[in-house]
Amino acid sequence: MADTVTTLALTVLAQEYRGDIVRQINRRCQFLRTIPIVRGGGKNVAWAAEKDGAVAENYSEGADTSNFGGDGQASAVLSWGLYRAPFHVSNLALDASRTASTPLGNHMRWARSLVNSTAELATTLNGLMYSGAGTGTTIAGLGVAIGDATNTYGTIDRAAGGNSYWQPYVVDPGLLTDPTFAQIRTDLGAIYDDCGEVPDVAFVPTAVFNKIASLFDANRRYVQEIQTARGNITLDAGYGALDVDGCMFMRDKDATPNLIHYVNTNHVSLEVLPPADVPDEAMQMVQADDGFGSVPMSFKYERLAKNGPSERAEVLATCQLKVDRPNTCGVRKNVAA
Fold first, then answer.
1. Which terminal Cβ of the chain has fewer Cβ within 10 Å, N or C?
2. What angle do CA 282, 285, 287 make, to 5 degrees?
């Protein structure tokens, strides 16, 4: 009788996937991990800005007082930014994933979709911290808040007479220029002279970070922990910071190309509006997770009405970037990388 070899092609086997599902997406939110995230309230983000107007003078003995002054106040108002990450999963996908043996990450298909949506929403917001237009229900990013000395921010026109107090430090050499320590010290000094404080963090794209790192010799020090208004921030997963005169330069995948954002974390924060308690618990608060840990952004998770054999939901964010004192921050444009 002829010998028949059993080959793999003649054998019915289940396809096994080893381990968990491996995410291939960089959703790290470096900016959101550094600035303070605070609870907001009310119909918008508003604060009072005080400007110079008080008078101090020399006088002659016995002279009457005739010159009076006082610091003025202005109202700064920003609308809430509204963002969401909707997702849906078919009932068949939910049922089949629960009974499949591999990969492990699909056993809780709904939970994984929820976590992935929070990560995508968080990384989208991290990018908007730089590029948000600030119109309607959009976030007013750093480009609007501190990237222009003549625009309107928080309903205050910076170009109007007497509003120079509302202007950030902005320098643009007009063409791509290699960064130098002298330039950086000039920038930090100008901001200090204007407001009395020095920015503690500078956000830059990786190419600019590497360019500034090249200014240091082989003994340069990479900082693993920095002190900000949010407290001590640990720079994990190999992320370091370059210290230039007390200002920590940090790289961010979403940072604006060829630009340095000087940020004072005592005056830059993200205000979030947490969800109200809903009796039927149809809406609840969930935390953002960018794949490197949770970010306390008070996201709202809401189930949506069914439409066919699938489950639908969305993750909502109500937030706004707030720079309550723009003259403590600034930008350097056209930085060669």
1. N
2. 140
